Amino acid sequence: MGAELGKYKSVVSARSTDKELLKYAQDGGIVSQLFAFALDEGIIDGAIVAASKEFAAKNPSKVIIDSTNFDMIEPWRPIPAIVSTKAELLAAAGTKYNICPNVALLKEATRSFGLDKIGIVGTPCQMQAVRKAQLYPIGMRDVGASIALAVGIFCMENFPYQGILQLVEDHAAMKLESVKKMEIGKGKFWVYGKRGQVVQLPLKATHKYEQPGCHVCLDYVSNLGDISTGSVGSPDGWSTVFVRSKIGDSVWAKAMAAGVFETQPMEKVKPGLELVSKLANEKITKNRATLEARKTFGVGKALRNPYI
Amino acid sequence: MADKISLGYTHLSGCTGCTVALADNYAGLLTLLDKYVDLKYMPTLADARHVQKVDVSFVEGSVCINDKLAVEELKETREKSTIVVALGGCACYGNITRFSRGGQQNQPGHEAFLPIGDLIKVDVYIPGCAPTPQMIRNVAVMAYLLLKGTKEQKDLATAFLKPLMTMAQGCEACSCDIMTTVINQGLCMGCGTCAASCPVNAITMEYGKPQLERDLCIKCGACVAQCPRSWFSFDVVENYEAINEAIMAALQ
User: Fold this and answer.
1) Which of A95, B69, B129, B174 could form a disulfide with A26 if both were Cys (CB 3.0 to 4.6 A apart)?
2) Predicted pLDDT at A2
C-alpha cells in the first residue's frame, strides 16, 4: 500500500455515536457528524452539502436555484446547499450518486451566505478544485482562507442525473420518487424502495452511465481532503476515515475527545485497508490507461491531457 | 535592501481594477514592499511613472494599437523587464475591451485593442476580472522565490508558475473555452468551479454541467483558468499545505 491512498496522518474505522444521526446517514455518518460537531464547536459556521428538492422547498434561503420552474426539479436531483444547523444537516444527509456541483457555491458562501469558516464535502475531483482554488485563486477572491474543513469522500466514478434515472427507472424498474436509499457496495448497485423493496444491479450495468469526465481521475480516496471517508474497507454501518492535513488532524482530535465517534483500529476490521488499496489501484490503473489511450485517440491527433 | 526584486507597473487600457486588487492585499502589500519588492514605477501608487529597468513588470490593461504612446510603453516594458506579467483579463485576453469598436470621446479613434501577448512575449498570465488580491500575492511571492530563492525555492516557484506561463496560448478566454477545452474533450466532471469563478454569473450549473450565457461573458478567462480540468499539477497542488504555509509565513 502506497501512493494510491495519498498522504495521511492516521486511518481508522469509525462511526458516529449519535444513534439519531445514523438513521439519516449513508454508512458511519462521518460527514454529517463531523459537520454537526464542527458547527457546534464554531470550527465552521456553515457547510456546503448535497441537498434535495424537499430540502430546498423547506429552506429556500439555503440554496441558489437557477431553474426557472421549481416544480420541474426531479426527485434525487442533488442541489448544493448551505446548512448551518444539525437539523438542516440531517435533512440533507445521504449519498445521492449523481453530480452535485458543491464548488459552485464556494464563493457565494462567503458572499450572500456570509460564511467566514466554510465546511465543504465533495468528491476527490472537488477536493482538487478546492485546493487549486486555494493555491491559484484566479476567480476565487477571498475564498481560500475561509475554507475551514474540507471533507472528501471515496469515489470510483459519478453519474449524471440522467444516468441514475436510467439505472433506477429502467434497469431497476422503480420510480425515483419511491426510492429511499441508493448504495454501491459488495460489487453491486443497490436501490432500496420506501416500501421495503430492494433491487440490486450488477455494477457492470452501471458502467455505460458513468460520467465520462470521471475516466481521467487518478484519485479514489480524496487525497486532498482534510479528512476523507467512505464505506470501503470497513464493516457494514462503519466508515473508513483518513485524517490527512493539520486542520483535519486538529478537528478529528477534538471530535474524538468529545466522544462523537467510536473507532476501531483499521488493522482489526474486515475487509480492511487492503480492499481500499485494491480498489484505489484498480481505479488509478484503469484511468491511467484511459489517459494513455487519449494520447493516440485520433490518427496522429491526441485528446487533451489535463495533467501537467 | 539589496536582495529585493525590482517591480514596475505599466498601466495601459485597464480600469485600475487590477491596481485596486493589488492594493486590496492591505497589510500584505506593505509587507511585500517592505521585504521583497522595490516598486520602481507605477501610476497611481508611486511617484515615478515612466518605464524603468526592472526584474518584474506587471502590465494592466490591453494595448490600443491606435495609441502610439501605449504601444511604445508596452514595447519599452518588454525591453526593460526580465519577467513580464499580464495582470488581469484585459492584458491577458482583451477582456471587456474585446467589445470596443471605438467612437468614444475623448479619443474616438481608439478602437482597436489587443491582449498584450499579441504584441510582446508574455511570461506569466494572471487572468480574471479583477484578478484576485490573493493570486497577485501568490505570484509576487513566487516571482521573488524564483529570482532570489534557494535552489529548492526556485524549483517550487518554477513548478508553481509553469501553468501560468502557457495559459493564454490557443485560448479565447471566453466561457466557450469551458466547452471547447474541457467539455468537448470529455474532461468535465461537474464540480461547479467555473460557475463560482465567473465574476458576472454568466455560468450556472444545470444537471451538474455548466450552462454558459455567452452574452453575459466578458472574456476575462477566470472560468477556464480556475477549472481543475483545464490544467492541474499534482506536484504543486498535492503540496498545497506547505505552499500555503510558506506564502503566509513570507507575509508575516
Assistant:
1) A95
2) 78
5-34 of A, contacting B, C-beta below 8 A? 7
Interchain CB distance below 8 Å, A223 and B225: no
Which of B205, B234, B236 has the CB atom closest to A135's CB atom? B236
* Orientation angle between helical segments B133-148 and B151-166, nearest 10 degrees: 130
pLDDT digits (tens, 9 = 90+) for B73-120: 999 999 999 999 999 999 999 999 999 999 989 999 999 999 999 999
Specify the fold of A159-209: Nuclear Transport Factor 2; Chain: A, (3.10.450)
- Rounded distance between C-alpha atoms, residue A60 and residue B238, angstroms: 36
Selection from A231, A189, A220 nearest residue A206 by Cα:
A189
Given the candidates 3.90.1150.10, 3.40.1050.10, 3.40.640.10, 3.30.70.20, the CATH classification of the domain at B176-226 is: 3.30.70.20
Fold of the domain built from segment(s) B5-167: Rossmann fold (3.40.50)
| Count of Cβ atoms closer than 10 Å to residue A212 Cβ | 15
State the maximum Cα–Cα separation within chain A, in Å, rounded to a whole number: 60
In sequence order, the 6+-apart residues with CB closer than 8 A to the CB of A291 are: A216, A218, A305, A307
